[in-house]
Request: fold
Amino acid sequence: MPSDIPDMEYVAQMLLVGNPLIEPVDRAAIQALQLPPGSRGLDAGCGIGLQALLLAEAVGPAGHVTGLDLSPELLVYAKDVVKKAGLSKRVSFREGDVSNLPFDDDTFDWAWSKDCVGYGIGPEPLALVKELARVVKPDGSVAILSWSSEKLLPGHPVLEARLNATSSGIAPFVQGEKPELHFSRALGWFRDAGLAEPTARTFVGDAHAPLADDLRSAFIALFQMRWSGVESELTQEDWAEYQRLCLPESPDLIIDHPDYYAFFTYSMFHGKVAE
Ligand SMILES: C[S@@+](CC[C@H](N)C(=O)[O-])C[C@H]1O[C@@H](n2cnc3c(N)ncnc32)[C@H](O)[C@@H]1O
Reply:
């Protein structure tokens, strides 16, 4: 990305282009939640509404999903996505901040947040989990899902480890931050927020050659997002190797190798609001 200020058009494009790779994982995680048919839920940090659609499908025609996001620009995309899917009656959107949700206590049957709560949003993830729990009815559920690991460069484990050790590779975690603030420690946030039966589950996405065009584009976008601006943190040799394997214009682009295979994980933390 060209500057530190998020360009929402760029964010929307990245979410859209990455979706063919990520959607099967979103579907598996949502299916695992077993959301009650007819229930009403919140998608906090809904972005362009891609999971709001899946959540609406999961709760069926009698259910409802409210997507909330800080970005009015992304909500314009989200409304369009939902309209095109013919689900505008079952999904509505609201501009707002997850740290101060514009909803009364006990409004929803469940709350969900993907790559938002606990994933680099706000200084204190515990407060955000408590805020999600506040708007969910007793016995309802809270779930947060985020990217948690990957093997995207088969045959190049050292380069991949070095890329993942850069500031971009560990983002949104920041070196020197308290370990308890890392997404993988979310069980503690759920426990401290008073949520019952906290659980952690891992969902795997994968792909292998030959890749269809939409998956090729998704991987190119993923490489860009995972390891952007890392040149100054690598040796010249590693930077050159990264460019050779990961830039779309390279004749050695790794995703075009006939043996290409990659996988990644998302982790979901879930808990119930005490009765
Ligand atoms: C990485 S995107 C994920 C979007 C969507 N959940 C997905 O996975 O496709 C993070 C989203 O969180 C939103 N966001 C960031 N801070 C927020 C806040 N304080 N309150 C509400 N939304 C926020 C961003 O605008 C963005 O849409």
Notes: The two ends are 45 Å apart (CA to CA). The pocket of S-adenosylmethionine is lined by residues 15, 45-47, 50-51, 69-71, 74, 97-99, 114-116, 121 (CB under 6 Å). The chain has a mean pLDDT of 96.
